[in-house]
Design brief:
Layout (H helix, E strand, L loop, with lengths): L3 E5 L7 H4 L7 E6 L8 E6 L5 H16 L3 E4 L5 H11 L4 E4 L13 H10 L1 E4 L11 H11 L3 E5 L6 H11 L3 E5 L9 H8 L3 E2 L3 H5 L4 H7 L4 H10 L4 H4 L6 E2 L1 H8 L3 H13 L3 E4 L3 E4 L5
Parallel strand pairs: 3-4, 3-7, 4-5, 5-6, 7-8, 8-9
Antiparallel strand pairs: 1-2, 2-6, 10-12, 11-12
């Protein structure tokens, strides 16, 4: 049986992207692989009463992102969320489910088997202590964690007033990319997603459309570009304002790096993750970062 860990904002294992939002949870309860929270992630959310079309799109996007080393984040709800989780598992990758209850309280109950599979290949996550029952007011609150863990949020089928649009609003506030999948214009089933597209959200037809919105180094990882290009990126990173703002041997938190580099705090997170993947920075205790030049 997988153990449950509690990690706080000062813990090196606490996701830097989530720590940077204006109201991060003080503690995350994690059942499964904590490392799944530290990898590049994309959220896929949408209607609970999803059409067969939306279920298939969510499953396919989840599988394709997983095959490209992107962790899929969602909420284990009926419909689009569970389809995205299943797709990621089918793709052989990682997926993380964010709960509106304790991680030991599986909701909805019929997803117990799916939750068990997620624990084996990812994690169940909540800011609510063990034993906390699902409550209506918890779910909008947990949506900020879904977006906060992610570099981008993809909406698959959302009617007007859908809870998925709350996640999109949080994503915009947090400086994350917001994307939407177009659907049937009849009946209003996808009115919310179409409204996002009219307001400037990027249209998604396949996983490549999502990868294009991610920082370059992470995009290269997802596209399977080899170590030669990664090495080139690491070498050219020496001219990066973020790295130039960091003195060797010193550890900096996000606010310090933003002030020293002049890079906006929300744009800073994806850049730091990109530099981390390139081997140019490392994360240390307390959610801080140090410059890493590697061996001589």
């Amino acid at each position: 049986m997988s153990t449950v860990s509690a990690i706080s904002t000062g813990d090196i294992r606490f996701p830097a992207a989530l720590a940077a939002i204006h109201d991060p949870p003080h503690t995350l309860w994690v059942k499964g692989e904590i490392d799944a929270l530290l990898a590049p992630s994309v959220a896929i959310v949408g209607s609970r009463a999803a059409s067969p079309y939306a279920l298939e799109v969510a499953r396919q996007l989840g599988a394709d992102l997983a095959r490209r080393s992107i962790t899929v984040i969602s909420g284990l709800a009926r419909g689009v969320d569970s389809a995205a989780h299943r797709g990621a598992l089918e793709g052989g990758g990682r997926t993380v489910a964010v709960f509106g209850c304790g991680v030991d309280v599986i909701y909805p109950h019929e997803h117990r088997a799916l939750a068990g599979r997620i624990v084996e290949r990812g994690a169940l996550v909540s800011e609510f202590p063990l034993g906390t029952p699902p409550r209506r007011e918890h779910f909008p609150q947990r949506n900020r964690i879904i977006s906060g863990l992610s570099l981008a949020v993809v909406i698959v089928e959302a009617a007007e007033g859908s809870g998925s649009l709350i996640t999109a609003d949080f994503a915009l506030e947090q400086g994350r990319a917001v994307l939407a999948v177009p659907g049937n214009v009849l009946g209003g089933r996808n009115y919310g997603a179409h409204a996002l597209l009219r307001d400037g959200a990027k249209l998604v037809e396949c996983a490549d459309d999502i990868l294009e919105e991610l920082p370059l180094g992470i995009r290269d990882l997802g596209l399977g570009i080899g170590s030669a290009k990664e090495s080139k990126n690491a070498n050219s990173a020496s001219q990066d304002p973020v790295l130039q703002s960091m003195d060797d041997g010193d550890a900096y938190d996000l606010d310090e790096i933003a002030e020293r580099s002049g890079v906006d705090r929300m744009k800073l997170l994806p850049r730091l993750l990109e530099l981390e993947l390139a081997g140019a920075v490392r994360r240390v205790d307390g959610g801080r970062f140090v410059r890493f030049r590697g061996p001589c």
